[in-house]
Structure formats: C-alpha cells, structure tokens
C-alpha cells in the first residue's frame, strides 16, 4: 500500500473523518464510575468494553472470581500470523473528590486548552468539524487508563476500513483492580493462562516523556507501602492545660519520619538500597535517547532544586524511593483546634527496583522504626498497652509486588520498538518506568517479555484533580496501535 507516509496519511484521514465518533465513545466510557471497590460499577465497565471490542470483531469473555472486579479477555485471530501480542490495560481508576475539580470528574468535558492556560469548556465536535489536537478531555481515568481502550478500538477500525492487513494475533487482558494493587490479578493469570500465551506483553499505561516525545519502557518499579499511626493520650487534650506535659503524637511522628530520609533525598533506613540490580550495556546506552529536560521540568513544576543533589530524573528513577504520601493529625487553618491529638498517622509508599523484595524492604523499615524506640503493634491499642510503651506505633503493611525489567535487545521487544520508531521521529527508551505496575505477576506466571507503550500526555494530572487527556495524544495512540498491529507501515 505504498510508503510509510502514505499509510500514515490514510490513518490521519480516518481520524479526521471519525474523530467526533471516537471522542463521543470516549466520553460515554469515561462517564461510567470505575472505582474497584464497587463491583457493581466495574461490571458495567466490563460490559461496555465487551460491547466495544465485539463490534470490532474481537472474541471477548468476561471472567469473574469471588469478591473480585471482572477481568476481560479478548482475542483477534489472524491467519498465518507472524507473532502473537498480548495487550494489557486497566479500566479502574482512582477515587475523585468533585470539590477538588474544576468540573465533575464523572461528567467528561472538552476544553480548548489546559485549565492553566485558560482553556474553556466547549461542546464535543460535530461530524466534519475540525478537531484541535491541543483540546483536552477532563474526567477521572481520561489518561489513566481508559484512553488506550479507545485508541486500540479506533486502530482496529482504521485498519479494517482501509483494507490494511493485521499481521499479528492479538490478545487482550483488561483488569479492574490495578489502582488497588491488583489483589486478584495473579489468580486470574493462573486460572486463565492458557488463553494468554504470547510472544510479548504490551502494557498500555503511563505517559509519554515530559518533552512530549514518544516513550517506551521495558520495566516498572515495584511497590510496597505502610500506614503508621503514633499514639499519645487516649483522648484529645486542651493544649493550654496539658501542653509541655502530655506527649504530642504529631511531634513524635514527624521526628520518626525525619529519621527515615535526609533533606537531600537519601533514605537512611539501613539496607534500603541493597540488592538493586545493575544495568547492562544496552540499558546504559538507552540513556542517549533521554533528552536533557530537567531544567524545563523544574520550571514547569515550580521547584528550585530536586532531591539527590540535582541528579537527573532518569538516574533517580533507577533507585528505590520512599515517599510520604499523606499525613493526618488534628486540623489546620480555620479548622484548627487548640488540642494535643490522641493519635497522628502517615501513609508511606516505597517504589522498588529490580532485585529488591517488597516484604524484605518493609522488614528493613520496621527495623528502623524499632531502632527509634517505638514498639510496633498491628491493631488499635487498649489502655494497658498505651501505659506500657512510651512510644507506640501501629504499622499496617501493604506488601505489593516486585519490580520487573525486560532486556531491550530481544526480538519481540525490538518489534514494538520499530513500530514506534516508524511513526515517531524521536523515541525515549527507559529501562524502567518510575511508576509501579503489576508486571511481576505476568513475569512469574506467563514468562513473556514486557514492553510499556504509553500514550497519555505527561501533564495529565493522573491520580489527582483535573485529570485530562490531550486529543493529540489520543491520535498518536491510534496511529501507534495501527503500526503495531500491521507491519505495512515500514
């Protein structure tokens, strides 16, 4: 069908003709609540996905396990296929508080630009109306992670309607519990692994590079976490009557947290960095694809200095990290009360690199806590326990999963890399994504190489208020999947 430019033009023409339908389907999908805590809601999403992909000729099955959100399996068979690709995405999303958003997170809106740039809400486009690639859709899960579903479906439409052959067998696994740690994914993979044999697993999640360039990642950091609660008196006390006498758990907590990490960013927990795998030569060479974007990013984020003595971002992503993701102890601002609170809490997440076991990492942190003089409990203390231990802390562990990294030079990974390079002038290659994904279960149970193919804009506000997707990134996703599914774009 001609050279690559003519094929890409065919795809662009298809997007221009059908973009309004694509955005409307996306809006309908985003309007479905999708938090994994509600199986009723996740079932509605699974049913929507089933209908979406069956319309494109994919054989779809919805599977359920007791107490779990549904997992959606799909397969598109190709006669004389050159390879089999398994694609993963998750349809669940983070909770969203409407009061924190500029618009209702469950009622998608289209804006002419980012909110920060004064983007105004406008109607969704009509047939034939030009669509600006800098428009943005605002809604929970717009970028994380419902966008790939629409891009994959649109790519299948474009190839079929323009008689471009699909040259691979395609398999799909769509999960509904990724944002709560994928507690049932391993069980699904074990039970249905006969459906999932493939040459490569493509993870459809995450953002492109901060520079806007296309990005591939060949692994992701693992995850572990803990919630800690430090105790003081068994009830709130008046700070005038009891200040300077009764211990303040908030003060004890901040001292404990400060003992874990120095201001420059180095974690002070003994053994925190032990066991991390070193990079091979191919992974080190990939640094040459990484643009020097840190100063621009610092300006965008309004930060004068980064952790690690201003080491660049990619170097920091190759280390395990400890992050205080939330604090709770009394009230602040206009709600502040003159009290010594009875307890104070913190939630910590730990990002792991390959070679570090999540359970062992949590053991190291608990050892550190004990060395600061704290006695660890697992449940709420009674008065006898409070009286016995001057420094008392409840620790709730979230073991999570280990990090995974695929060698960059294997043929299946190279195929996806070439598919991206056919449509993007410059591609950033990351040995590992900074975020965490449940890749360990795939690695352990399916034994297939893993490549991440993100499409969302880097400034998408995922997990936070005003999550959004830039329209041009959706169009990139359609073209990317079309390139992966058919090798005619050469």
Characteristic key phrases:
490 residues; alpha/beta; six-stranded mixed β-sheet; 2 domains; Alpha-Beta Plaits; 21 strands
What does this structure look like?
There is one protein chain. Helix 1 (4-30) packs across helix 14 (471-485). Helix 11 links the parallel strand 15 (375-377) and strand 16. This protein has helices spanning 4-30, 39-54, 147-161, 185-192, 239-242, 249-258, 281-285, 294-301, 313-317, 358-371, 383-388, 411-421, 439-446, 471-485, and strands spanning 59-63, 71-76, 83-90, 109-111, 121-122, 136-138, 168-175, 200-203, 214-217, 219-231, 237-238, 321-328, 339-340, 343-352, 375-377, 392-401, 404-405, 427-430, 433-436, 450-452, 468-470. The chain folds into two domains: 4-218 and 406-485, 3-Layer(aba) Sandwich (Aminopeptidase); 222-273 and 319-401, Alpha-Beta Plaits. The chain contains 14 helices and 21 strands. The chain is α/β, with parallel strands linked by helices and 490 residues long.
How many strand units?
21
Structural class: alpha/beta
Q: Superfamily at the CATH H level of the largest domain?
A: Zn peptidases
Average pLDDT works out at 93
Count the helices. How many?
14
- Count of the domains: 2
What amount of the residues lies in strands? 15-25%
- Note the gap between the termini: 10 Å
Give the CATH architecture of the largest domain.
3-Layer(aba) Sandwich
Supply Rg: 24 Å
- Helix content bin: 25-40%
Largest sheet: 7 strands, mixed
Which of globular, elongated, flat, extended, rod-shaped describes the shape? Answer: globular
Query: What kind of oligomer do you see?
Result: single chain
As for the CATH topology of the largest domain, it is Aminopeptidase
């Amino acid at each position: 069908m001609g050279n690559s430019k003519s094929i890409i033009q065919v795809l662009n023409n298809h997007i221009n003709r059908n973009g309004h339908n694509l955005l409307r389907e996306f809006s309908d999908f985003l309007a479905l609540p999708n938090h994994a805590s509600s199986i009723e809601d996740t079932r509605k999403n699974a049913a929507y996905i089933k209908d979406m992909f069956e319309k494109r000729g994919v054989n779809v099955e919805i599977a359920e396990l007791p107490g779990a959100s549904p997992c959606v399996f799909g397969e598109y068979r190709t006669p004389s296929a050159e390879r089999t690709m398994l694609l993963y995405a998750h349809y669940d999303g983070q909770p969203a508080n409407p009061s924190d958003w500029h618009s209702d997170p469950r009622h998608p809106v289209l804006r002419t630009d980012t909110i920060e740039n004064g983007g105004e809400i406008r109607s969704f486009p009509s047939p034939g109306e030009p669509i600006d690639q800098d428009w943005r859709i605002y809604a929970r899960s717009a970028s994380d992670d419902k966008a790939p579903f629409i891009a994959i479906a649109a790519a299948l439409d474009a190839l079929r309607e323009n008689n471009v052959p699909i040259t691979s067998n395609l398999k799909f696994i769509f999960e509904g519990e990724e944002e709560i740690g994928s507690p049932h994914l391993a069980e699904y993979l074990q039970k249905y692994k006969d459906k999932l044999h493939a040459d490569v697993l493509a993870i459809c999640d995450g953002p492109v590079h901060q520079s806007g360039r296309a990005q591939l990642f060949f692994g992701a950091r693992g995850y572990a976490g803990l919630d800690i609660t430090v105790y003081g008196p068994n009830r709130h006390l008046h700070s005038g009557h009891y200040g300077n006498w009764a211990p303040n758990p908030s003060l004890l907590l901040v001292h404990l947290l400060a003992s874990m990490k120095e201001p420059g960013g180095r974690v002070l927990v003994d053994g925190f960095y032990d066991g991390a795998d070193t990079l091979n030569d191919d992974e080190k060479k990939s640094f040459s694809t990484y643009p020097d974007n840190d100063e621009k990013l610092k300006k965008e984020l309004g930060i004068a200095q980064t952790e690690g003595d201003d080491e660049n971002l990619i170097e920091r992503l190759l280390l395990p990290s400890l992050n205080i993701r939330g604090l709770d102890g009394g009230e602040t601002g206009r709600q502040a009360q003159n009290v010594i609170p009875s307890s104070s809490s913190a939630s910590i997440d730990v990002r792991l690199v390959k070679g570090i076991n999540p359970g062992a990492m949590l053991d190291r942190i608990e050892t550190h806590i004990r060395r600061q003089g704290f006695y660890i409990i697992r449940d709420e203390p009674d008065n006898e326990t409070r009286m016995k231990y001057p420094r008392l802390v409840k620790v709730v562990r979230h073991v999570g999963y280990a990090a995974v990294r695929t060698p960059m030079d294997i043929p299946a990974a190279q195929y996806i890399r070439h598919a991206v390079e056919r449509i993007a002038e410059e591609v950033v290659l990351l040995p590992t994504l900074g975020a965490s994904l449940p890749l360990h279960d795939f690695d352990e149970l399916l034994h297939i190489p893993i490549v991440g193919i993100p499409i969302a804009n880097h400034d998408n506000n995922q997990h936070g208020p005003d999550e959004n997707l830039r329209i041009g990134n959706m169009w990139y996703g359609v073209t990317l999947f079309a390139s992966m599914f058919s090798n005619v774009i050469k």
